[in-house]
């Protein structure tokens, strides 16, 4: 029995694994005008089958081991299928014909259909399975079919010379050439060792700028984008290749590696390269699957110049060509990379330069033209094919080709952009080889304008104010309206204001003023709301101190932030926890007597220890410390006021709205929960201490108090909607119509798609928003209103905020490419308490703003979507 070649065996294996499939079928579709002899064409096709044994070979596997069984033409069952087709049905008929799969065990790998479209109008569809075919085979097949048709048309037999070898001879010769794997001197052993060293540590998967996650099962559907390199650039690239002693293909390879790297694929770029594999002249006129695949790996670490990249690709390519005999299929077996049915092993991007010459079918009396054979098949994540064109005088006339991108991963527009960016990089190679990879212009001026200016056009006049200023306006507007509700107790705006003013005057007497910090060690309560307002009214910045913090964490906060005093709720806490710090204990008789003797009227600025301005700090909140030592973030009034004014303009809270405050006040989300309702006339509903952990309690409180607006960390939202007793009475159209829940805002974690989808199933009429922002950017920097289906984005920048997605050289990356997120604008924190060095490291100069403008390096990776929304992509450090 004749064994399969190594390449054939891999395709046979995939056919068994995937079942009937058209992934590896190759349709050629030609339209003809003129007089066609049907019988002569069928006879000519039979002649071709006779001449090329591989086209009449089946691959049975009686004991699980396939072999080549070469059939006589008479036993193939081959016939040219002829059918009439209406012109308007031709495209779909051709596509349906091209989609028919082969049974390799019983069917020969070639079929042909002739469709009669009208008088002297035809379409010929020839489909060949890749197991018997490669791109080079198109030339011999077209020439032989042309010769055979002309002979049969005149009643004779084709007079071609017999082929010196057949494909079966090649399959046997290949195994003989490679030798025994146990022989260290064999070609197989030597080439395996070369490739083992060359591909050591190669990335399992390139980080390409995909539009969606890799699916569990590939569909092999593809998007096709045209590739056009101008004649001028083509000419310079040809000259460049000649000057450097390399082929044009190597130049294309280098430019593609640079393109992929600049699109976020990293600095270790393996690219598949198809090589003809016809190393003996006797194989040149033979139809068959000879093509082999090499992996050319380019190392772009260290930001080399384009000249250095070319030299590296030249040396790597020559080494690969010298070791091209090892079949790719055998290489995969030897290296045993992590295998996946969803991606190609060792590389996911293929580059092919078509140089096999044109395959021209010349049938007497007929004028042929090509026709599409259906949607492109995506065998790789990206499959790049190029071909040179030349003028009549032989001068370079441009490079034409296509980029086929896997539709599972990419949108059609993304494939077009990738093609355009590769052409732009090729132009860079043609212009100046001294340029470093990082400086290659991957963006055009219009893209740069969109990323830096258009999508950051957020300037809005929010006025210049402070938190006490905003609150005072609302108190004057609605002094008798309910402001705060807690455990059955309600206070009006006037009552809250008066209590806060008295406590503020007491704090001023204790030395609290602008640039001072006041610790708050109170449980969630009305007293906490009053204390927060009192601190900012006095001009100080409040520091949340959670009573559940460990003693060493509390000691660290006190030492690091240096509060003037701490407001506590009991003497025991004040003495036991804050013995070394001045304390104001609410409820303690002496304090209550002092408060009773103070005015509840609005504070005048002259009563403070210094004028309060928008640049003064409003609060200091510490990061969790999950990535190191906790950092105290100092946020100004300007930042939080901008945030509140934007929220009100976006959502428009009214007097009929009720906002739930349930976030622990050591987290910055609590800031807008406290202040947003109080500066716009809504009601602040305060949850009991610890209540935020209980979904059932939260649901009961929301129903009882008619909460319209609530924040959830995504993991808590997931737990909340999974608890029937929590959502009862809140979910469904009736609850919404009845004036219940109107909006849910998520932040703090990535919001999973499945959670968003389940939310909409339960709360179809309720808005769901996903926001993003580290503590250093005043709660949130971006917002996205979620929709049913698709990814959950983190949105676009809020007012007076700009966001930049940058590479390691602080250059903007293209749409769809992951980069590090930087935030600039009014909402940036002032910095870290007592850490000027760290502040300078994270709050860096903004190269896209005015003099002195800063931007915050978030450490998060995101990418722009085509509609100007940010999508989270993980951590950068």
How would you concisely characterize the structure shown here?
With about 900 residues, this protein is α/β, with parallel strands linked by helices.
Detailed description of the structure:
The chain has 877 residues and is an alpha/beta fold. Helices cover 34% and strands 22% of the residues. It is built from 26 helices and 34 strands. Strands 7-13-12-10-8-9 form a six-stranded mixed beta sheet. A five-stranded mixed beta sheet has the order 4-5-6-1-11, with helices on one face. A five-stranded mixed beta sheet has the order 24-25-26-27-28. The longest helix is centred in the middle third of the chain and has 20 residues, at 412-431. The model is unreliable at 734-738 (pLDDT under 50).
Features:
877 residues, 5-stranded mixed sheet, 6-stranded mixed sheet, 22% strand
Are there runs of 5+ residues with pLDDT below 50, and where? Answer: 734-738
Query: Could you give the count of β-strands?
Result: 34
Largest sheet: 6 strands, mixed
Radius of gyration over alpha carbons? 36 Å
The dominant shape is elongated
Number of H/I helices: 26
Termini separation (Å)? 57 Å
Mean pLDDT: 92
* Beta fraction: 15-25%
If strands are numbered along the chain, what order do they take across the biggest sheet? Answer: 7-13-12-10-8-9
Structural class: alpha/beta
- The amount of helix comes to 25-40%
Secondary structure: elements and pairs:
Blueprint: H1 6-18, E1 25-34, H2 38-51, E2 57-58, E3 69-70, E4 81-84, H3 90-98, E5 110-118, E6 121-129, H4 138-153, H5 167-178, H6 187-198, E7 222-229, H7 231-243, H8 248-265, E8 268-275, E9 292-299, H9 306-322, H10 328-335, E10 349-354, E11 366-370, E12 382-390, E13 396-406, H11 412-431, H12 445-452, H13 467-477, E14 482-486, E15 489-492, H14 493-509, E16 517-521, H15 526-538, E17 541-544, H16 551-561, E18 565-568, H17 571-577, E19 583-585, H18 589-596, E20 617-622, E21 632-636, H19 637-651, E22 658-661, H20 669-678, E23 683-686, H21 695-705, E24 709-712, H22 714-721, H23 724-727, H24 733-737, E25 743-746, H25 753-762, E26 767-772, E27 782-785, E28 796-797, E29 801-806, E30 819-825, E31 831-832, H26 836-842, E32 843-845, E33 854-864, E34 870-875
Parallel strand pairs: 4-5, 8-10, 10-12, 14-23, 16-17, 16-18, 18-19, 22-23, 24-25, 25-26
Antiparallel strand pairs: 1-6, 1-11, 2-3, 5-6, 7-13, 8-9, 12-13, 14-15, 20-21, 21-31, 26-27, 27-28, 29-30, 30-33, 32-33, 33-34
Helix pairs in contact: 2-4, 7-11, 8-9, 8-11, 14-15, 19-20, 21-22, 22-25
């Amino acid at each position: 029995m004749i064994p399969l070649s190594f390449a054939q065996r891999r395709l046979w294996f995939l056919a068994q694994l995937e079942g009937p499939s058209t992934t590896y079928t190759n349709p050629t579709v030609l339209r003809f005008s003129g007089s066609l002899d049907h019988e002569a064409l069928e006879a000519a096709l039979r002649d071709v089958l006779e001449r090329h044994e591989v086209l009449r070979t089946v691959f049975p596997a009686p004991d699980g081991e396939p072999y080549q069984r070469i059939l006589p033409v008479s036993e193939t069952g081959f016939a040219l299928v002829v059918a009439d087709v209406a012109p308007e049905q031709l495209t779909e008929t051709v596509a349906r014909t091209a989609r028919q799969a082969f049974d390799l065990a019983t069917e020969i790998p070639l079929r042909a259909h002739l469709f009669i479209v009208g008088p002297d109008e035809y379409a010929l569809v020839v489909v060949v399975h890749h197991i018997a075919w490669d791109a080079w085979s198109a030339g011999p097949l077209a020439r032989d079919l042309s010769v055979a048709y002309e002979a049969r048309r005149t009643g004779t037999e084709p007079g071609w010379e017999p082929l010196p070898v057949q494909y079966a001879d090649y399959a046997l010769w290949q195994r003989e050439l490679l030798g025994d794997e146990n022989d260290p001197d064999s070609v197989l052993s030597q080439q395996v060792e070369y490739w083992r060293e060359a591909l050591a540590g190669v990335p399992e998967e390139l980080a390409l700028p995909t539009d969606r996650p890799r699916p569990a099962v590939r569909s092999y559907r593809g998007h096709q984008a045209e590739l056009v390199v101008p004649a001028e650039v083509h000419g310079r690239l040809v000259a460049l290749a000649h000057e450097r002693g390399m082929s044009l293909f190597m130049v294309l390879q280098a430019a593609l590696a640079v393109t992929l790297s600049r699109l976020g694929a990293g600095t270790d770029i393996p690219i598949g390269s198809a090589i003809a594999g016809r190393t003996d002249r006797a194989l040149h006129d033979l139809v068959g699957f000879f093509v082999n695949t090499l992996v050319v790996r380019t190392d772009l670490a260290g930001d080399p110049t384009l000249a250095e990249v070319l030299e590296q690709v030249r040396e790597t390519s020559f080494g690969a060509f010298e070791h091209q005999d090892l079949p790719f299929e055998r290489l995969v077996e030897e290296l045993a990379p992590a295998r996946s049915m969803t991606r190609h092993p060792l590389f996911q991007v293929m580059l092919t330069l078509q140089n096999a010459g044109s395959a021209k079918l010349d049938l007497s009396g007929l004028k042929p033209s090509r026709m599409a054979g259906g949607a492109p098949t995506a065998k790789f994540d990206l499959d790049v094919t190029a071909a040179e064109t030349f003028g009549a005088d032989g001068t370079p006339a441009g490079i034409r080709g296509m980029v086929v991108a896997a539709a599972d991963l990419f949108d059609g527009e993304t494939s077009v952009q990738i093609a355009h960016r590769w052409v732009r990089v090729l132009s860079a190679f043609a212009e100046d080889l001294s340029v470093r990879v990082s400086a290659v212009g991957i963006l055009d001026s219009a893209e740069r304008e969109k990323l830096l200016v258009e999508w950051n056009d957020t300037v809005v006049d929010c006025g210049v104010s402070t938190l006490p200023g905003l609150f005072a306006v609302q108190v004057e507007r609605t002094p008798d309206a309910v402001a705060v509700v807690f455990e059955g107790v309600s206070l009006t705006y006037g009552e809250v204001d008066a209590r806060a003013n008295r406590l503020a005057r007491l704090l001023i007497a204790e030395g609290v003023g602008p640039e001072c910090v006041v610790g708050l060690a109170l449980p969630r309560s009305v007293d906490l709301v009053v204390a927060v307002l009192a601190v900012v009214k006095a001009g100080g910045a409040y520091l949340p101190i959670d009573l559940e913090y460990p003693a060493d964490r509390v000691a660290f906060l006190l030492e690091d932030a240096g509060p003037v005093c701490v407001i506590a709720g009991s003497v025991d806490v004040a003495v036991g926890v804050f013995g070394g710090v001045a304390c104001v204990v609410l409820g303690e008789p002496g304090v209550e007597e002092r408060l009773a003797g103070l005015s509840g009227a609005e504070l005048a600025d002259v009563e403070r220890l210094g004028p309060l301005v928008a640049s003064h700090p409003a609060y200091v909140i510490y990061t969790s410390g999950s990535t190191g030592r906790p950092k105290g973030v100092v946020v100004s009034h300007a930042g939080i006021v901008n945030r509140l004014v934007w929220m009100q303009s976006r959502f428009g809270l009214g007097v009929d709205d009720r906002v739930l405050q349930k976030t622990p006040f050591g987290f910055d989300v609590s800031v807008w929960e406290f202040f947003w309702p109080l500066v716009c006339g809504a009601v602040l509903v305060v949850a009991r201490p610890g209540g935020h952990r209980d979904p059932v309690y939260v649901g009961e409180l929301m129903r009882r108090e008619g909460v319209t607006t609530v924040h959830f960390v995504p993991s808590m939202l997931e737990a909340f909607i999974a608890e029937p007793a929590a959502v009862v009475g809140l979910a469904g159209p009736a609850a919404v119509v009845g004036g219940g829940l109107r909006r849910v805002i998520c932040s703090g974690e990535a919001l999973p798609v499945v959670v968003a989808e389940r939310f909409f199933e339960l709360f179809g009429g309720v808005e769901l928003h996903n926001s993003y922002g580290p503590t250093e950017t005043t709660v949130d920097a971006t917002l996205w209103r979620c929709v049913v289906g698709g990814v959950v984005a983190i949105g676009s920048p809020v007012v007076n905020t700009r966001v930049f997605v940058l590479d390691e050289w602080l250059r903007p990356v293209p749409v769809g490419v992951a980069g590090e997120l930087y935030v600039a604008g009014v909402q940036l924190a002032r910095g870290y308490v007592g850490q000027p060095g760290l502040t300078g490291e994270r709050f860096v100069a903004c190269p896209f703003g005015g003099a002195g403008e800063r931007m915050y390096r978030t450490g998060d990776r995101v990418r722009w979507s085509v509609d100007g929304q940010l999508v989270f992509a993980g951590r950068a450090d």
